Amino acid sequence: MDLWIGETYHYMPSPIAVGIFELTMMRTAPGQDWKKVGRMFHDYMIEQRDFVMANCSHGEKVGLLRTIPHEEMLDLQQHVEILDYESASAIIEGQEVFSIGTCSCRHAALHAGVRSCDTPLDTCSSFGIAAEFLIRRGFGRKVSKAEMRDNVARSRQLGLVLNVDNVQRNPAYLCHCCSDCCHLLVGMKRWGFANVVVTSAFRPETDPGKCTGCGLCSRACPVDARTMVAGDGPAAGKKKRPVTDMARCLGCGVCSLKCKSHALTLVRKKKRIITPESTFERIMLQCLERGTLQNQLFDDPGRLTHQFMRGFVGGFLRLSPVKRALMSDSLRSVFLSAMKKGASAQGRGWMTSI
Q: How far apart are CA 320 and CA 135, in angstroms?
């Protein structure tokens, strides 16, 4: 991958996601054995447990993507405040370069023979330097700010989940996910790891006086977090009531979109959600959480001193008390500040601005 940053091209090997998978399945050129490739990705990322186990089975809190709510479903009567990085409209307004490309998940599902929805393929949204890369390399087409707004509006009408790059500043992409094809949502339902996607800061709340017990919200939930149970008390009769499994709920608002009685809105959770400020901070926290930070600090495999320090520092950082302390609210900002200073001291200060 090549990124144009600070009047210079910077190159990096592509990870599996976001990277190899998307940059393969966003292509639609004829003459390729897409059926074979789509099936291979489906088998590796969905059917086999190893991929999701390696990335999502250790209680990770810092993920690649986070859900943002459909803003129209927020309970404004409770004066719910939505921050700029929690709002699709604010994210779009803060960007200048946009691209839309083929959804890699739906394209893979189509050729793997497992796609059951009719959601359009052209939904994958990118911004800033990521959009510039996709446009330059032919993975996406350049669109206007108005077209990007329309893209999000269409996803609201279709009841898609909005999953965005898990950063506060300069997000690179916005996914428009359906429960049938999205590797993340399908993986959550199949393997039960609720931390595949970082949830939004909101949760659904039902007004029992307005709820008719129709079950539309339950059927609409993309991760099966809403179920209908028998009503409370003899007066309820056969009327059912919805119950939300908050361990699975994304806080996306898709259930609210389908509620015809307007009994369902989104309210802010009491528990604080960690959202890294930048891509640099997200990568540092992910590496710390996964026990690989030493590979970023001492990255020359040819030097014996780097090999020694990777082993020594890695063993220290993998200690549970150390990891918990550095990820805590009290020390996290100090830790990230030290990482930024270290990058700048090595002449890599440009990384901290991404």
A: 43
Cis before 18? omega within 30: yes
CA 140 to the chain's CA centroid: 19
Asked whether the CA dihedral 86, 89, 94, 98 is positive or negative, the reply is positive
Q: What is the pLDDT of residues 251-302, one digit of tens each?
A: 999 999 999 999 999 999 988 888 999 999 999 999 998 889 998 888 888 8
**Amino acid sitting at position 175:** C
- Amino acid type, 78: Q
Which structure tokens are listed for 29?
A: 């050129």
**Cα–Cα distance measured from residue 296 to residue 340, given in angstroms and rounded to the nearest whole number:** 12
Are 340 and 283 members of one domain?
yes
The Cα 249–Cα 353 span in angstroms is 32
Total domains in the fold of the chain: 3
The DSSP-derived string for 17-45 is: IIIIHHHHHT---TTS-HHHHHHHHHIII
Instruction: Identify whether residues 168 and 27 lie together within a single domain.
Output: yes
270 within domain boundaries: no
Report angle CA 87, 93, 99 to the nearest 5 degrees.
Answer: 100
Q: How far apart are CA 82 and CA 73, in angstroms?
A: 12
Q: What is the token pair recorded at 305? A: 């001193």
- DSSP summary character for residue 136: H
> pLDDT tens for residues 29-77?
888 899 999 999 999 998 888 888 887 777 788 889 999 999 999 987 7
Shared domain for 75 and 124, answered yes or no, is: yes
Could you tell me if 162 and 55 lie in one domain? yes
- For residues 215 and 92, membership in a common domain is answered with no
Q: What secondary structure letter does DSSP report for 329?
A: T
Q: In sequence order, which ranges of 192-331 are alpha helices (DSSP H)?
A: 216-220, 254-257, 279-290, 293-297, 304-317, 320-327
Cα–Cα distance for residue pair 92/326, rounded to 1 Å: 33
Angle between helices 332-345 and 279-290 (to 10 degrees): 110
Instruction: Please list the residues that pair with 229 across neighbouring strands.
Output: 241
